[in-house]
Design goal:
This protein is 70% helix and 0% strand. It is mainly α.
Length: 118
């Protein structure tokens, strides 16, 4: 949740996206263009119901597709979802698998607490 607040603050400061609805439209376009960070952010909007009806299943679907395409942020979010068990059934094996995918793609700063060293 803190990361989401930080993203909102950043958007307001930068003036890039004025509303959650415009964020949804822009992230959807980015994801359709296979921009992995856009997909990860789109999944976050679905997960939290920002600018779109809350749909955790759609969020997980987006995270999985993006993670499988090399999206490190999506792998991180997918790992968190499985680790916490709030929007999907808790599964530590799948969580570590997602974190490992992010590690292998080189997203070390977020994953140091999981002892991810390439």
């Amino acid at each position: 949740m803190a990361m989401l607040k930080l993203q909102r603050s950043w958007r307001k400061l930068r003036g890039l996206l004025e509303t959650d609805e415009s964020a949804f439209a822009n992230y959807k376009k980015a994801c359709e263009a296979k921009v992995q960070l856009g997909c990860s952010n789109l999944g976050t909007l679905y997960e939290n119901g920002l600018g779109v009806k809350r749909d955790p299943k759609k969020a997980i679907e987006i995270y999985k597709d993006s993670c499988n395409s090399g999206g490190t942020q999506a792998c991180y979010h997918l790992g968190n979802a499985y680790r916490k068990g709030e929007i999907v059934k808790q599964d530590y094996y799948l969580a570590m698998e997602a974190y490992t995918n992010a590690c292998n793609a080189g997203d070390l700063p977020k994953l140091r607490k999981y002892r991810c060293y390439v």
